[in-house]
Amino acid sequence: MSIAAVLFDKDGTLIDFDGTWGPAFHAVIQALAKGDESAMRAQADALHFSLEEKRFRPTSPIIAGSSAQYGEIWGQAIGRDDYAALRQEIDSLSAVESLKALAPIGSPLEALAALSAQGLRLGVATNDSEASARRHVEALGLLHIEFIAGYDSGHGGKPEPGMVLAFARHLGMEPRRIAMVGDSIHDLHAARAAGALAVAVLSGPAPREELAPHADHIVEDIGALPAFFAGLAASS
User: Fold this and answer.
1) Which of 2, 99, 188, 232 has the fewest CB atoms within 10 Å distance of its CB?
2) Which sign does the torsion angle of CA 119, 111, 186, 158 carry?
3) Do 39 and 109 fall within a single domain?
4) How many whole angstroms separate alpha carbon 103 and alpha carbon 62?
């Protein structure tokens, strides 16, 4: 069956991960440290984050995770065990700060408009919060997105297949007619677990050799997708 819909990861796929979240999380770390330099350093060490470069190391739990997963690690670094409240604080602060630094990869609006013109229906599935994802989609003017799910939308987080399956239910189609596009192994595992096509982009922190064993196809970035899906449709 031909692909009829595309579900995008957000960070590292539609928006530049380090360009957006590096400055954003640096600001969050500062806010939570409340002027304590040692608290800033403890957070950075726990999150594998360079304060000087405002960049994440490849081992950072933030790269593919959600605050539900790394919130406890973060809390331990600053002596807090009110994890539910801390996660809400992190989500609220990061939503505000990421909007300030929002940096798209290429031209998402142009790429998505071309895919929509091909008849493909489009959605976003992210381990960010749904509210933050909606703000980013709106700020980028991505009017062709009709479905948005975050880690807190009730479908579970990636690498679980729940977001992909929820998109399939929203569309009323089989998951195998959906392509999941993302820059991390979590995205590709979610796609395969749901029975969707797993398409990797190389615009995030993960290198080709890490993604290749888990992907059905690999493209450089979202700018290559219109030609890729046109070719896929022609071959099917």
Assistant:
1) 2
2) negative
3) no
4) 18
Same domain, 222 and 117: yes
Q: Which of 101, 131, 148 is the last residue of a domain?
A: 101
Residue 119 exposed, middle or buried by CB count within 10 Å (0-12, 13-18, 19+):
exposed
* 15 DSSP assignment: B
Q: End of a domain among 60, 85, 101?
A: 101
Residue 162 above 70 pLDDT? yes
Predicted TM-score (pTM) of this structure: 0.87
CA atoms within 13 A on the CB side of 145: 25
Helices (H), 63-213: 67-77, 83-101, 108-117, 130-139, 162-171, 185-194, 208-211
Range of the domain at 27: 18-101
Among left, alpha and beta (phi > 0; psi -120 to 50; other), residue 119 is left
Asked if 25 and 199 touch (Cβ cutoff 8 Å), the reply is: no
Q: Is 194 left (phi over 0), alpha (psi -120 to 50) or beta?
A: alpha
Residue 61 has pLDDT above 90, yes or no: no
Does 69 share its domain with 182? no
Alpha helix (H) residue ranges in 48-103: 67-77, 83-101
Number of domains in the chain: 2
Q: Would you mind telling me the total number of residues written for the chain in this entry? A: 236
Q: How many other β-carbons are positioned within 10 Å of the β-carbon of residue 53?
A: 11
CATH code for position 167: 3.40.50.1000
Write out pLDDT tens, residues 111-130: 999 999 999 999 999 998 89
Rounded Cα distance between 60 and 47, Å, is 6
